[in-house]
Design a protein that fits this description.
Blueprint lengths: L2 E6 L10 H13 L3 E4 L7 H7 L16 H14 L4 E4 L7 H10 L8 E3 L8 H14 L8
Parallel strand pairs: 1-2, 1-3, 3-4
């Protein structure tokens, strides 16, 4: 039986909203036959995806039809909470994404308790990596040095 996994990673301010990286990871993971992959890059309608693929700077203000960052994040959080996601797989440098941090932290809450793995090696995210995400958040708030 395949494991239903959600991909988390950087989208805003990434070339083409990070869709190429999400698409590559989804294709690779599906090819193993072990995963049912839910990728936020595949959840948008065709018109929204078309706009994203024409946006080399990944500027979130250029979302299609008035959709906001919050609209996309709310959709994805609801999916993680309510749609049978069994694990979260994080793309490289996921901790630099506000949305991915929220997704990972929410999935890690005790009532969900989802395993969180790193792509491409599929090893669990470590306590140090969770701390790195938290330090990155604090740095963005001006509270501490940014981790490398």
């Amino acid at each position: 039986m395949k494991t239903k996994a959600y991909l988390a990673g950087r989208m805003s301010w990434q070339p083409f909203f990070g869709f190429p990286a999400f698409d590559d990871a989804a294709k690779h993971l599906r090819s193993t036959g072990e995963w049912t992959i839910i990728s936020p890059a595949e959840l948008d309608d065709k018109a929204t995806r078309k706009v994203a693929m024409k946006c080399p700077d990944g500027d979130p203000s250029k979302a299609h039809r008035g959709q906001t960052w919050g609209d996309f994040l709310a959709r994805d959080l609801k999916l993680i909470a309510d749609e049978g996601i069994e694990t979260i797989i994080c793309l490289p440098k996921w901790w630099q994404s506000e949305g991915a941090r929220v997704e990972v932290f929410m999935g890690s809450l005790p009532h969900l308790g989802l395993p969180v793995l790193k792509y491409p090696n599929l090893r669990p995210v470590t306590k140090d990596e969770y701390a790195k995400a938290y330090r990155f958040l604090l740095h963005r708030a001006g509270a501490t040095k940014c981790p490398t």
